[in-house]
Amino acid sequence: MFTFSEGTAVRLWNIKIALLPCGAFYLAPVDCLQYLTAATGRVRSFNWLDTNSTTVRQLNNQNFNICFRTELIARQTASELCLSVCSVTNGDAFSFTTPISGPIADATAAVATAQRKPFKPLRPLRFLAANGGNTATQNQIQTLTNANQALTAAQAALTAAQTALAATVAAAGTGLSAVGTSTNSTGVITATCLYDSLLIPGARDSTNVEADRYCGDALNNAFVPVGTSVQVCTPLRPFKMTYRTDGTEAAIAAGTNILPARADTNNTGFCLNFQEK
Q: Which residues form the CUB domain (predicted)?
């Protein structure tokens, strides 16, 4: 389905349709939108181009699997799949959901700000959950109210710290990596790679550091964001990646059960070289 905004333009598509036998050995596995059948090559997200144009963007609302057929390498079944960013001339080989984490001192300060917000003991809250509030005392109800207010205030404080952090990163002019993390500190949850991400199950770098969810402007397993990409490899078969994007590039404000995220800027998707070993 194509949806266009108002305006006049000339558009042209080449659409290839192929009919495959039901029993063909080369059929893609179930739930694989992209299927790669070579030991080496390139894999790209839809709409990725090697261009410096700011009008080229990743597609929104994506959620699909990219599968790799397990090949024979030196007469043996490949035991791992390795991925690294493509060499590009003008574009960006890896760019989606610029991370909210920057210098470690700023990231630590953001979490510390949230942790300083007061939270009451959770026992009255568990009581309310178990009893549906039917036999709650006025003090217990007030405890719940205070906890909700504290959570809202903590999320607002964390959002403010992240906004300041984003400005620091932007001023530095360096695109940083990010891996999926989720931390619960005194009831305040912070997360990265939550809305747009590339999932590579079991991926490890050369130092055997493991991560599975990637975003940002560099492919790297480092927990503290860095500006350089590295090769990552996964031994998990069948080899597969999952690409997910949400429906907005705008900032996501903090709220109850909503984790904040900064606005995305010039997201282009990814281009990766792959090699089975």
A: 29-276
